[in-house]
Specification:
285 residues; alpha+beta; Arc Repressor Mutant, subunit A; 3 domains; 6-stranded antiparallel β-sheet; 3-stranded antiparallel β-sheet; 10 helices; 37% helix; globular
């Protein structure tokens, strides 16, 4: 298996968290659960002309386009490991999608949408969509460019270059959303207190946050806490669950277990038995 991940170049960093490439043509299992992390991703299958749409039980439901935008999720999704033979992806920074693509992030919540419907092709001279906020480039265009690259490093460089071409020099991240995320992360405040701190109503904060991040602020905070626990379990942290729960901000162990099961479909013990190389990927039998 080959797996590479790197940070985006300087111009992209306000918008993109990381770029990754994977080549795993011979997985011993057919399905994996992917746990939610609060980020929007773009996934591009370089080995075949589609991605597999699996239901929560792992059964194949349909074929998706080979290049898709995967919206933020509040529950795990299931992937077919056959799609991992030659695949690349982009992890969008929370709050970065709207600025990069000119689209409301909440419209993609728990959706897998053809990349060609949102890719900003202003440098390719094609027609505008969505009232002129973006331009369409069919999903195959970035796929073709990536397939032309001969090495994994070359594919990531090509992807970085294409994304850099989308950045509007006038685009700015939402100061309100960035301040709110800082308040949640650094101070651990509740949504009501955060709204008072940033000087808007709770309703207005939730509205703007959803448009830019793709999920409501309360859900984002819950996912952030869940990911803290997932990271600790994946590292094999030696701590009783009750202590880990309190350390990560849960009321008690029952609250921790219920939240964990709600997001992952698993209890923490099952997660630790089935986790592998990546903390958010869990083998399905």
């Amino acid at each position: 298996m080959i797996y590479l991940e790197r940070a985006a170049s300087g111009r992209l960093r306000p918008w993109v968290r990381s770029l990754w490439y994977c080549s795993a043509p011979e997985c011993a299992h057919q399905r994996e659960r992917v746990l939610p992390n609060g980020c929007i991703q773009i996934v591009l299958n370089l080995s075949r002309g589609y991605l597999t749409d699996c239901g929560p039980d792992g059964q194949r439901q349909a074929r998706l386009p080979a290049a898709i935008v995967v919206g933020a999720r509040a529950r795990y999704e299931v992937i077919d490991t056959g799609d991992l033979a030659d695949i690349a992806g982009i992890v969008i920074e929370p709050g970065g999608f709207a600025g990069l693509f000119g689209e409301r992030a909440d419209l993609f919540f728990e959706q897998s949408i053809d990349l060609g419907s949102v890719w900003d092709g202003r440098r390719d001279g094609v027609g505008r969509v969505n009232g002129g906020r973006g331009r369409v480039v069919r999903g195959a265009r970035p796929l073709e460019r990536l397939c032309e690259a001969k090495t994994p490093e070359g594919k990531l460089s090509a992807l970085d270059g294409m994304l850099s071409g989308l950045v509007d020099e006038q685009a700015r991240r939402s100061e309100l959303v960035d301040q709110a995320m800082w308040e949640f992360s650094a101070r651990g405040v509740k949504v009501e207190e955060c709204a008072r701190s940033v000087g808007v109503s709770e309703r207005r904060l939730s509205e703007v946050f959803r448009e830019h991040v793709g999920i409501a602020p309360k859900m984002w905070c819950r996912l952030r806490r869940f990911q803290t626990v997932v990271g600790a379990l994946h590292r094999g942290t030696e701590m009783r669950w009750a202590e880990l729960a309190v350390e990560c901000g849960y009321y008690d162990q029952a609250h921790f277990v219920n939240d964990f099961r709600g997001f992952s479909g698993l209890d923490p013990t099952s997660y630790t038995k089935k986790t592998g190389k990546w903390q958010n990927h869990v083998v399905m039998e």
